[in-house]
Structures are given as C-alpha cells and as structure tokens.
Amino acid sequence: MREKVNYFIEKLKLKGMELRLDETLAQAEREGLSIDEVLYRLLHAEYEMRVNKQLESRITQAKLPWSWTLDTFPFEKQPSINKTQIMGMANLGFIKRYENIIFIGKPGAGKTGLALGLLRLALMNGYRGKFYNAQDLLNELYSSLADRTTSRLLKKLYHYDVLVIDELGYLTLNNEQINIFFKLIDMRYQKKPTIITTNLDYPEWYGVFKQKELVDAMLDRFKHFCTTIRIEGDSLRQAQEDNEKPKDKKR
C-alpha cells in the first residue's frame, strides 16, 4: 500500500506530502494518530510547500535589487522619517485604497529602502508587484513601440498590485516615452497603487517631462490618492562611509 501511495503522490506532484509522508506515518504508528490527523498534517505540509513556492515566485518576478525590509530600516539614523507613519503603511491598506506613495528626498536618504520594504511586505501577503528603475522602465516602454508590444506591456504593468518606480529624476526622455509613461499612470489611477522614489519635488517634474499640461494631469492623478513623504535627512550611505573611516589617532 505504501508503494501505491508513493506512486500517486509522485504522479500528482505533491512535493510537500512526499517530504513529510514517512515522518508522519511513523509518528502515527508511535502515537496512534487518527486518520483525520494524518490527513491534516500531510495536507498542511503540501499547503505550506505551495505557499512558499508561490512566494518565491512572486519575489523572483518582482526583481527586488536588495533584500531590505522595514524591520531592518535604520529609522534612528533618519529622524525626519515618521516611523509610526511608515509602520502604519505596513498593514497594506494603501493597496486596498489604491493609494499612491511618493518618497521625495536626496540620493541615499532611504527612499528606495522604504519602497522595497513595502513591496516585500505586499509580496509576502500574496500580492503581485514589480520593482523598476525609472529609466529602465521608460526605455522598456519605448522599445515596445518598435515591436508593437506596447499594449501587452501596459496591460502587464497595469495588473501588478504594487508597482515601484525608483529614481525618478533627471532622466533622458523623448516625447514618446513621456506620453506612454503618462498613459501607464492614467491606467493605474484609482485602480492600482504606484510607489515612486524621486529626488525631485513636484515643481521640478515640469523640467523632466516638459509638457506642462501633461505634467499637470499627471500630478493631479498622483496627488489625488497619494501619500507624499519628504525625507529631509542626508545620505545614509555617506553617514555609513564616514563611520567606517579610520579615526586619526592623537599624537
């Protein structure tokens, strides 16, 4: 009978059950577990395996560049950030409200770390998301015009539960990139949240996207359902480098 059970577990690709079968049956013999308990433990093992695989798949597809989390973010080194506000976002209510989040601050101030922390939490809670460097995203959108895959790409980007666009700054853009980026933002408006990190405050966006009416419309959509977090502190990377420099010894 054990061989028959193993046969169907293998054919049905029940990897979680396969890993726990011998251990669970041996425990059942020792402790006199009921059939219900044995089935529960095997099904639970299979469920955990599948949940973990799905999480791994979401994290892989999201292309997270670093393994930062909100738990490891050095809030004490960046006092201008309201930790209570950020941790309040950790309940992911902004996703259900379709609320954008925009982090504004100097390079290295921690914007990307906070955005990644929120994205990772979303992935761990079953949401799908993607991390993009802003220039890479705009280049990908522009390339899609050449092979006529723009509609497919926009549809894919629209369906992410959380989209992070990192380092929206002084980019090299042409009119086609600007127009298609606006279309993406318009598609997600009030339907899916977007997290943006930038070193430019809102008035400076006009210098990047050039078209005043388009920027007006874009900012209107962003700021309508949006939390703006301005980080006033200096670079965390610079502070770390300064701390790691050897101190001059007094003679």
Order of SSEs: HHHHHEHEHHEHEHHEH
Shape: elongated
Return the CATH topology of the largest domain.
Rossmann fold
Average pLDDT over all residues: 90
Separation of the first and last Cα atoms? 82 Å
Q: Class of the largest domain, according to the CATH hierarchy?
A: Alpha Beta
Major sheet: 5 strands, parallel
Number of folding domains? 2
Low-confidence stretches: 239-245
What fraction of the residues are assigned to beta strands by DSSP? 5-15%
- CA radius of gyration is 24 Å
SS element count, helices:
12
The CATH superfamily of the largest domain appears as P-loop containing nucleotide triphosphate hydrolases
Q: Roughly how much helix do the residues carry, as a percent range?
A: 55-70%
Instruction: Output the strand order for the largest sheet.
Output: 2-3-4-1-5
Number of beta-strand segments: 5
CATH architecture of the largest domain: 3-Layer(aba) Sandwich
Judged by helices, strands and strand pairing, the structural class is alpha/beta
